[in-house]
């Protein structure tokens, strides 16, 4: 059997182990330390725009602490893009609040600004209260229409928490994803564009928010020599070992973005001529995706009935991993009782879509194997 080709793998740059060794040599084997500080510093420099960054144990933890600071609590509602990974929505429920799901638009696959406004107006009408926050997602690295979304955020005075977990290195209108909202989450899970084996970060707009984030992430200890607590805290800080991996990964982040974009171009060149295949595509020059995962749509009306799921099985038979797009949250059993504002767009994308291998570590030979299987499937 030939070697397995995975969807998205960790890709070390080479320096990661030096930073881990430094942590061992200096006995900084704790959830804070020089690697954490340096990793945060390099993220701050990369993202720019005077943002602050706090490294955390997961992207999910970052979303949780952002919602907490936005005052989300029992009985509140939070608007969330439906077409996403469940980690965008789960933390809303940790706080006793309820997600309200908004559908995507067909070009970016992200939150539809028109539906967003409709949802806000209808929630106010139904409940008498405004939703407490808006969570757009930059899916597979493709920026959401942040100009339109931020206008609505300003008009209704509802803060935005960007889910940029998949979009480190993506840009919209010349600004990095993660710099638009009051807060933004990043993820360094093993399959993301850079990894710390597991980890995340919260991008904050003010020094005060960053301090508060560290406070909540370290069990909410009051300023006292003994352990005193006036609030409930969490244990969400990133370990100094994992941050060492992150420090090394920051040295190759731009290479990873370039490589994933090259992979996306390669697939486009090889596959665009096949009838019934289309790609998630930057709609205009305003959009610059990191193309974390190259995602395609298969239209069975144009492929003689061949479907995305049949292609997935054909790839699997050739020892190549591919994956359906995220199943929209409004179709998930666990969120069946949540309000949703949808028109079938994300459901249709889910039914027609497939993510294909996009690891920055893939060789030209690996990529040729993938396109050969896809071409012969459609022939
Ligand atoms: C990966 C991911 C997260 C969560 O990140 P973790 O670090 O795995 O907790 C959140 N949202 C989206 C869209 C993601 O893809």
Order of helices and strands: HHEHEHEHEHEEEEEHHHEEEHEHEH
CATH topology grouping of the largest domain: Aspartate Aminotransferase, domain 2
- Give the CATH H-level superfamily of the largest domain: Type I PLP-dependent aspartate aminotransferase-like (Major domain)
Characterize the overall form. globular
Give the strand order, joined by hyphens, for the main sheet: 1-9-8-5
Q: Can you identify the CATH class of the largest domain?
A: Alpha Beta
- Mean of residue pLDDT? 97
Number of alpha- plus pi-helical segments: 12
Q: Quick one: how many beta strands?
A: 14
SS-based structural class? alpha/beta
CATH-level-2 architecture of the largest domain: 3-Layer(aba) Sandwich
What are the segments in which pLDDT stays under 50 over at least 5 consecutive residues? none
Distance between the termini: 23 Å
Instruction: Provide the number of structural domains.
Output: 2
Using only C-alpha atoms, the radius of gyration works out to 21 Å
Binned, the helix content reads: 25-40%
Identify the bound ligands. Answer: pyridoxal-5'-phosphate
Largest sheet: 4 strands, mixed
Beta-strand content bin: 5-15%
Write the layout of secondary structure elements.
Elements: H1 16-25, H2 34-47, E1 52-56, H3 59-69, E2 77-81, H4 90-94, E3 98-102, H5 113-127, E4 134-135, H6 146-156, E5 161-163, E6 171-172, E7 175-176, E8 183-187, E9 200-204, H7 207-217, H8 240-250, H9 253-271, E10 277-279, E11 287-288, E12 294-298, H10 308-317, E13 340-341, H11 345-352, E14 353-356, H12 364-378
Parallel strand pairs: 2-3, 2-4, 3-13, 5-8
Antiparallel strand pairs: 1-9, 6-7, 6-11, 8-9, 10-12, 12-14
Helix pairs in contact: 1-8, 2-8, 5-6, 9-12
Bound molecules: pyridoxal-5'-phosphate.
